[in-house]
Design brief:
The complex is a heterodimer of chains A (477) and B (145). Chain A contains eleven helices and eleven strands. Chain A has 477 residues and is of the alpha+beta class. Chain B is of the alpha/beta class and 145 residues long. Classes of the chains: A alpha+beta (477), B alpha/beta (145).
């Protein structure tokens, strides 16, 4: 799964997370830099002030006292140092000696740097040059004005303050990040509520109606729960589906009424062919020889066969288009009627037929259509059977619909022809093997689907077939 | 010699072939009925109006095709059954299919029977027998006493 396949909500949240984390990290760096600079300035300022103060003081003892008090308060080390110390306390360390050499060479008066001490810790070091003043000459007649005498050295511990600062910055950063993540959390929740969930519901609904359309069931509108883009998408989808199904319905109706009128018009000349062939046979049959009469008989029987075909086509085109009388249809009585009408064939083949003592009632159905379903399935089960037919009729209650089945021990068929057998005028066998027009199962399928049900079959050549179909307990108008 | 005059029959049929085949069925069986032919609903209504005026003979039987161009058989039937002088005439509907839903409508409107075309004489006589028109159509006086 690549980044592209993530949900819109997740993508959005990822982007926001990256931005917020980035901004807070950059902010922390800025804060840290700014704080560090101001801390450096602060130490420098403090050192410079105290150094300049010390320079003003002429009493050496006072200098020592100020220095030691300053050190006590600040924790710094403030001292006087000299290149030629009289007092060994004032002897310079390596850094001080180096800086004072530089002061002597270039005449600078100030130097500061962050230096790592012998203990491995870092210190902010400040040095201020002490040069001979006019006032000194009176006590030290050998000195010259401006000559370097020594320096004030301030050593401020640096690690502690910077680490404290780093801690502060880090806690600010943590707070910022916490804020950032809680914002992301809230945004994530909101985006789920506002974007992902409605979108997923919409997707689910669209997929659901796609399935319904595929199964030929009646499709309900997708609920429109808001006026935002998602709501508009749902409305647009509903409109699209409605106009598609309307235009499909119109086309279908046009085709069916076309089929109807064509079949009807075809019947008239066919009737003449049959009628006049019979007339010819009746009036002039004695003047024809056996062969002539045979031809005439073939014409008549072909015309009749075509008549049956057209009648079935007409009947097929009427399903769902023309509503027959509706009411509660007892499947038991329908099956009984079908068996009665097939009695000749049942007896001829010695068929054994199992019917449960009670079959359900389908409400608001057309008895004639239900009859056509069972009639076609049962007569097929009788017909496509080379031995003694054993036919089982049954059903199962499946909530809002019934599942019926007609099982036989007949010739069966290869499942690769499953869809083909339900198509109109499709036959799997030669007409002289098993008669029929190829309309029966197509008609059954159309009736079942018009009622909002489904039909399918399970079979294996030589192992018999089972035809299943569902019918709602109450058919919608 | 018969004392009963053969009844007049009105055949309302738009297909020339069907007319010919129907006439043949009568002819082949030596029925000497006078058959009036109307080629569509309009013509049938015109004939029936003349019957009502007395300028055309009252038919004893009407053979009425359901599907007719323009005014169809159902409308003609409705007219017949709404007129005092006409409504007792037996009407046999001609249809192309026994599954024709209109047959039901025709029965509701008072049609006596129906015949599926092409009309063979056997079917025709069967229907006529069923609606007990046998004697008046075949023009044989009932055996009296």
């Amino acid at each position: 799964m690549s980044l592209k396949d993530l949900g819109i909500g997740t993508k959005l949240i990822l982007a926001i997370t990256v931005v917020i984390v980035g901004i807070s990290a950059a902010g922390s760096v800025v804060i840290y830099t700014y704080q560090k600079r101001s801390l450096d300035d602060q130490i420098l300022e403090r050192s410079r002030t105290v150094a300049e103060l010390l320079i003003q003081i002429e009493d050496h003892r006072l200098i020592s006292r100020v220095a030691s008090e300053f050190n006590e308060v600040t924790g710094y080390t403030l001292k006087q140092t000299s290149l030629e110390p009289v007092n060994p306390e004032n002897s310079p360390d390596e850094f001080e000696a180096r800086v004072m050499e530089e002061f002597r060479r270039n005449g600078n008066t100030e130097y500061y740097a962050v230096v790592t001490g012998e203990d491995g810790r870092r210190y902010f070091r400040y040095m201020k040059a002490l040069r001979t003043k006019e006032s000194c000459i009176s006590c030290h007649p050998g000195y010259r004005v401006g000559e370097l005498r020594g320096s004030i050295s301030v050593i401020a511990p640096y690690d502690d303050v910077t680490s404290a600062m780093r801690r502060n910055t880090l806690s600010v950063l943590v707070i910022l990040q916490l804020l950032a993540f809680s914002t992301v959390g809230v945004l994530y929740y909101l985006s789920r509520r506002i974007v992902s969930e409605p979108l997923n519901r919409l997707i689910g609904a669209v997929e659901g109606s796609a399935r319904e359309i595929q199964r030929g069931e009646e499709v309900k509108d997708i609920p429109v729960s808001s006026g935002d883009e998602i709501g508009r998408l749902a409305t647009a989808f509903n409109n699209l589906r409605r106009s598609l199904s309307e235009s499909f319905k119109r086309k279908n109706e046009a085709i069916e009424s076309f089929v109807y009128s064509i079949s009807h018009d075809l019947k008239a000349p066919l009737r003449s062919i049959e009628g006049f062939s019979i007339a010819l046979m009746e009036d002039y049959g004695d003047r024809l020889n056996d062969e002539g009469r045979h031809y005439l008989n073939r014409i008549v029987s072909s015309a009749r066969k075509m008549g049956v075909l057209i009648d079935e086509l007409l009947e097929y085109s009427r399903i769902g288009r023309i509503s027959l009388q509706r009411g509660d249809v007892s499947i038991s009585s329908v099956v009984e009627l079908v068996l009665e009408d097939n009695l000749y064939e049942i007896n001829r083949k010695g068929a054994k037929i199992t019917v449960p003592p009670e079959l359900p009632v389908v409400k608001n159905a057309e008895k004639q259509r239900i009859y056509q379903i069972f009639s076609n399935l049962i007569s097929n089960a009788l017909k496509y059977n080379d031995g003694v037919p054993e036919i089982e009729i049954g059903y199962r209650d499946e909530g809002d619909h019934y599942l019926f089945y007609v099982r036989d021990n007949g010739i069966g068929f290869d499942m690769k022809y499953h869809d083909k057998i339900f198509e109109i005028f499709q036959r799997l066998h030669r007409e002289d093997e098993y008669g029929g027009t190829g309309v029966g199962l197509a008609m059954v399928k159309k009736i079942v689907e018009t009622y909002g049900g489904r039909i399918w079959a399970e079979s294996e050549p030589g192992k018999g077939s089972t035809f299943y179909f569902t019918l709602p307990k109450e058919v919608r108008d | 010699m018969s004392m009963v005059r053969a009844i007049d029959i009105l055949l309302v049929e738009d297909s020339q072939d069907d007319i010919e085949l129907t006439l043949r069925a009568f002819r082949k069986n030596n029925l000497g009925n006078n058959i009036h032919i109307a080629r569509d609903g309009e013509e049938a209504l015109e004939f029936l109006r003349r019957v009502e005026e007395g300028s055309a003979p009252l038919p004893g039987l009407i053979l009425l095709d359901i599907k007719l161009p323009g005014v169809d058989g159902i409308e003609v039937l409705r007219y017949i059954k709404s007129r005092r002088t006409l409504r007792r005439i037996p009407v046999v509907m001609l249809t192309t299919s026994k599954n024709d839903r209109d047959i039901e409508t025709c029965y509701d409107l008072g049609a006596n029977s129906y015949i599926v075309k092409p009309v063979s004489f056997r079917d025709f006589m069967e229907t006529v027998k069923n609606i007990q028109l046998y004697w008046i159509v075949t023009n044989q006086p009932p055996v009296v006493g």
